[in-house]
Amino acid sequence: MRHGRDSIFAISILIIIAASATLFYGCGGGGGGGSSSGGGGGGGSTPTPPATPVLTAVSSPLISGGSCTIAGSGFGSSREVALISGSPDGSAQRDSNMSSVSIIPAGGGSSLSPASYASWSDSQIVFTLPTLTAGQQYTIVVNVANSAGSAASSSSQSSINTVPAQDTSKIPVISSISPTTQTPGQAIIITGTNFGSTQGSGSSAGYVMIGTVSVITGLIWSDTSITCTVPSGLTDGSQTLIVHTGIGGDSTGYTFTVASKKPAITKVSPTTILRGATLTITGTNFGSTQDPNYVMIGTEKVTTGLVWADKTITCTIPASTPTGSQNVLVHTALGGDSNSIPITVTLTVPAITKVEPSSPVMGSTATITGTGFGDSQGTGTAAGYVMIGTEKVTTVSYWSSTSIKFIVPSTAPEGSTTLVVHTQYNGDSNELSVTIVSNRPKITSISPTSAALGATITITGTKFGSSQGTGTTAGYVIFDTINQETVTSWGDTSITCTIPVTVTPGSTVPVKVHNSVGNSDAVNMEIYSP
């Protein structure tokens, strides 16, 4: 009897010790008792309690009701493990001991449990978060159990897993970065929303991530703007930039280019320049060849007519460049935009002083003298030209800044009119009065004024030419749209011919004389069927 009482006392002591230590040990059972050394009717070995689990990562952000993944080791293959514990009557019973995750508010407060568990393995746990307080810091702790007891992840590990809960309505958004290409050591400005009024501090502090390098210090921070210095150690080329805030987590990535070969302008010459004149840009890192690089003058992109070297570029000021102060910068594919240097673009209004002869004849050459016409006429839609009244001169044989030679078109208005020079770079000149002498044929009368198809008529006028001519320059008479190339006689003031039978009869059929200079004005006559 004494031996039996001793056995019951030993079991009770073990249970009390196990309860206080959160450890459950298997014990001997059966008809006979045993000593603490395991003698008696039966005995059992002591199972090993679980090792301390190790946390290495907690997914971020922590969002109420969202999924959270923990990575590490020593979590056990599942949450639930069976254990066998002794009882005072010497029987055995099966119980359960559950592994779990605790979500502990930093600074104190009640520990929270996951809303549910999705999966549990020795190296990863996935669970659904309960309702969290946005901005609150939380420490994640893993409590692992086995048939011998339980152990929690150590406090020294939990500190790296202290993460603030985040609010999806406060996710930062980047709208622009300026400049989009920058050299390490130089500043950029990130513009957007939900950055927070301050950067914050500690583990909830905001930061900028460029590629794999985070920038935490030296930031000028507001809710809509962050000024950041590009860190060293980045590879040249395209990098993804994000803004991270303690309450909102990470922004969507924004493309940013790191360029250690950023071009730099040291000077431009001249600093005051006319449209169409040559500008010389001096600096570094322009690159040995132009393509696909370019120069910006104000809002004008210059890609053609450039002479390009690594330290010197020459270009022509475009005709469309506004006058006044304009910034010049160089853009390269490798380095992005250079610094800008201002120049002043001036306008020299072209001025006509005289036209020789003062009464030029249609088809003859005339010479305009003046200033500011530009070194060349130019090409394409920006080319300079001469206007006589409303008629644009199509044939220019010579163009310089002080002189233009052109052929007076036969379509120019006859008599007193105005002449204007439009230049490629500097707009329109003053107007100069000229008298255009016509050498186009002119009809004064037709006899008879009414005749049948096939009838002979006589056309009287001036400047028909002494003869009809031959070949492509031969003269002819036009009846509406029908050309009569066979004439009875042709003189400078009179032409005799028959009315073609193919002309459509009518009361007002237009008749013109055509010669090597051009067409006369039309005179109407009546033509009828015979």
Top keywords for this entry?
530 residues; mainly beta; six-stranded mixed beta sheet; 5% helix; elongated; disordered N terminus
What are the SSEs and their pairings?
Layout: H1 2-21, E1 54-58, E2 67-73, E3 80-86, E4 92-98, E5 100-105, E6 116-120, E7 124-128, E8 137-146, E9 149-152, H2 155-158, E10 163-164, E11 173-178, E12 181-182, E13 187-193, E14 207-210, E15 213-215, E16 220-221, E17 225-229, E18 237-245, E19 249-250, E20 254-258, E21 264-269, E22 272-274, E23 278-284, E24 294-297, E25 300-302, E26 307-308, E27 312-316, E28 324-332, E29 336-337, E30 341-346, E31 351-356, E32 365-371, E33 385-388, E34 391-392, E35 396-399, E36 403-407, E37 415-423, E38 427-428, E39 432-436, E40 442-447, E41 450-452, E42 456-462, E43 476-479, E44 482-484, E45 487-490, E46 494-498, E47 506-514, E48 523-528
Parallel strand pairs: 12-20, 22-30, 41-48
Antiparallel strand pairs: 1-2, 2-7, 3-4, 5-8, 6-7, 8-9, 8-10, 11-13, 13-17, 14-15, 14-18, 16-17, 18-19, 18-20, 21-23, 23-27, 24-25, 24-28, 26-27, 28-29, 28-30, 31-32, 32-36, 33-34, 33-37, 35-36, 37-38, 37-39, 40-42, 42-46, 43-44, 43-47, 45-46, 47-48
Distance between the termini: 161 Å
Give the number of helices. Answer: 2
- What is the mean predicted local confidence, pLDDT? 82
The 3D shape can be described as elongated
Coarse structural class? mainly beta
The gyration radius over C-alpha positions equals 49 Å
Number of strands: 48
**What is the percentage of strand-forming residues?**
over 45%
Largest sheet: 6 strands, mixed
Low-confidence stretches: 1-44, 86-95, 154-162
Helical content stands at under 10%
